[in-house]
Specification:
This protein has 360 residues and is of the alpha+beta class. Helices cover 41% and strands 12% of the residues. The chain has eleven helices and twelve strands. It has helices spanning 2-19, 23-37, 71-96, 121-132, 169-175, 178-196, 237-244, 259-271, 313-318, 326-335, 341-353, and strands at residues 104-107, 111-114, 140-145, 155-160, 165-166, 210-211, 217-218, 230-231, 276-279, 288-290, 297-300, 307-310. It has a four-stranded antiparallel sheet with strand order 1-2-4-3, with helices on both faces. Strand 10 and strand 11 form a beta hairpin. The longest helix has 26 residues, at 71-96. It is globular and about 60 Å long.
């Protein structure tokens, strides 16, 4: 009888070795399987997260961008991801009584499937690069590239679920005190200052403003005439700035209130020298995770907009919530002397002429 039980236990282990021999996916699922074998079924629950290492030391130079997996493999993972989505929709979410999210899909073993209209191959590569650089980011297990039948959301990424929760307003103002605020800001500063010191490897290829992999950048701040919020790559900052205020040249934009004042402020911003730094691109509180108990930073998520931008971009993007409030003050503390009030006012004017030109 004991020999039979040993044989039965050996079957899934053999399958594990055979089927999941693909890099990080095999490693993650092997760890999950060990927990299940040890009767630790918490690994199946939708709140299970893989432990985040303590404060890491970020790299002092930009690591090389990982190569894309071959397209046939990306297409294979796309079909696997379709099956995982159906499993989550039909069985997993109903079983645990949780809401199914079509963009961030919950799965067992501490996994998430990101599949939204903004998901790009560049996000997967950038996240892998940032993990190599010592940043607390999800582990990318695989990514799929879907065919023309999924033109609005062509890429899906299977990744590990990060420990922690986003920094919502009530968490910051009601739960955390001044000591936790200072801790989070100082830990954010370690990572952000490190990546802002990296040298742009794409300048020698004539691409000063671009994604981490040298392609177009994607941002909600890109004017609407550009499909999917894509812009570039741009050969220099001037080309980037000209594209941002392109809608201001349309006759309809010139009747906008305060048009002339906004235009002059934006041009002042463009006339000052700016360095190009590596930026997250969407530095808002829901993309930063913290441990509720300890008050420490646990991760950065959503690197789809990351790339090489003018030095003011990350901070002023983080201030989109307005010129007051808890996150505005947090970003202002984080930026220090790197972003003046004048920089921020002029960038707001730039957004009014560009991405927000027709939102009145």
């Amino acid at each position: 009888m004991s020999a039979l039980l040993n044989h039965v236990r050996a079957v899934p282990l053999a399958l594990n070795r055979t089927l999941f021999s693909y890099g990080s996916l095999r490693l993650t699922l092997t760890r999950a399987w060990r927990k299940t074998v040890n009767l630790d079924f918490s690994v199946l629950k939708p709140d299970f997260c893989w432990e985040t290492p303590k404060l890491l030391t970020p790299a002092s130079s930009c690591p090389p961008v990982p190569r894309l997996t071959p397209q046939p493999i990306r297409r294979f993972w796309a079909y696997v991801h379709i099956l995982l989505r159906e499993f989550s929709l039909r069985y997993y979410c109903p079983w645990y009584g949780i809401r199914y999210d079509n963009g961030i899909i919950d799965l067992p073993f501490g996994l998430l499937l990101k599949w939204s209209d903004g998901t790009r191959l560049e996000e997967a590569q950038t996240t892998q690069m940032m993990r190599v650089a010592g940043f607390p980011v999800p582990r990318i297990l695989c990514y799929g590239e879907h065919g023309p039948y999924h033109s609005h959301h062509p890429v899906s990424i299977l990744m590990t679920r990060m420990e922690g929760v986003p920094i919502w307003a009530d968490l910051w103002t009601d739960h955390f005190g001044p000591d936790q605020h200072a801790t989070i800001i100082s830990e954010l500063k370690v990572y952000i200052e490190a990546m802002r010191k990296w040298q742009n490897p794409w300048v020698k290829h004539g691409k000063e403003i671009c994604s981490a992999v040298g392609t177009s950048i994607r941002s909600l701040r890109v004017p609407s005439p550009h499909p999917l919020g894509l812009i570039g790559p741009c050969k220099d900052i001037q080309e980037f700035h000209d594209t941002l205020i392109e809608p201001a040249m349309y006759p309809i934009a010139k009747v906008k209130p305060d048009y002339e004042e906004d235009l002059q402020m934006a041009l002042r911003l463009h006339s000052r020298p700016h360095s190009v730094v590596f930026s997250h691109g969407d530095l808002l509180p829901f993309n930063i995770l913290v441990n509720v108990t300890t008050g420490h930073l646990t991760g950065f998520i959503d690197w789809e907009s990351a790339g090489w931008y003018p030095d003011y971009w990350d901070y002023s993007t983080g201030m989109r919530t307005g010129r007051s409030g808890w996150w505005y003050e947090a970003i202002k503390t984080l930026a220090g002397s790197e972003l003046t009030d004048e920089d921020h006012r002029e960038d707001v004017a730039q957004r009014c002429l560009g991405a927000d030109a027709f939102a009145w």
